[in-house]
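Incident log, structure service

09:12 report received: a user says their structure output differs between two submissions of the same chain.
09:20 pulled the input from the user's history:
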Amino acid sequence: MRVTHGMLVDTLLKNLSGNLARMERVYQQITSARRISRPSDYPVGTATVLRLGSAAQEIEQYLANVEQARTWLDLTDQALTTIGQSLQRVRELVVQAANDTLSADDRQAIWAELTALQEQIATTGNYAHAGQYLFAGSTTQTEPFDLSTDPPTYRGNNDQLLRLIDRGVTVDINVPGSVAIVPVLQAVKQARDAVASNDPNAIRATLATIDAAQTQLLAAQASVGARVNRLDAQRDRLLDAHTSTLRLLSEAGDTDMAEAVTRFSKEELTYRAALQAGARAIQPTLLDFLR
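09:34 re-ran on a clean worker, output below:
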């Protein structure tokens, strides 16, 4: 086959273009630190990177859900602790009021403190986090306890609030006020009425109701503690999974700098050699000489 000058020039330009394209691809990998800038670079690796990236994002969302759930439960535990302290004070006052030596005026003073404690307990039951009431069940936008009634009435429901903390795994994060706080308010109301009647026997009879409410309150706190422990264990597991996934993602998608720099040097050397070879191969033609 006869090789013309034009064919030589075309071959040179084609090869130079290919050299530049390969250099640009390696340059892109080095400067972006990513091995794959477009799916065509490495189709199989691209699928792996996409799958691992999606898995990492899913784990991050579970971690966020765990943190939200833990914050909610921590605040719930704090509120229940505050209510428990108030109930303990109620019991102390009732024991004091049951003393036969107390006068009606003394019991009136105790009644006033019990009334204040009842309001404090209901106010604590109306605690909110990020605009959502902790003890309202699923009606988180409704203040659960109506302080205009005596005792304060519960306006929430018994629904659970669930958080997804893993694929197919949920945890309920709330304690409905009807479970832990309503019995306390009813016990305080009963104690107040007994103290107001100035009847020591009736006052002593309310201690059993107070103790029952306290037991129910402690059971709710124990349940909250168990869920917090479960969330802590889940968070540790998710953090391990996230670290492992990111490591695999880096191995699949990040540039191996040492290998990339070596390839870039090789491509650069090839390009320079092609330029030199082309400069020598494309000599002036007879037509150029005649000009």
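09:41 both user submissions now match this output. Likely a transient worker issue. Closing.
09:42 reviewer note: The radius of gyration is 38 Å. DSSP finds eight helices and six strands in the chain.
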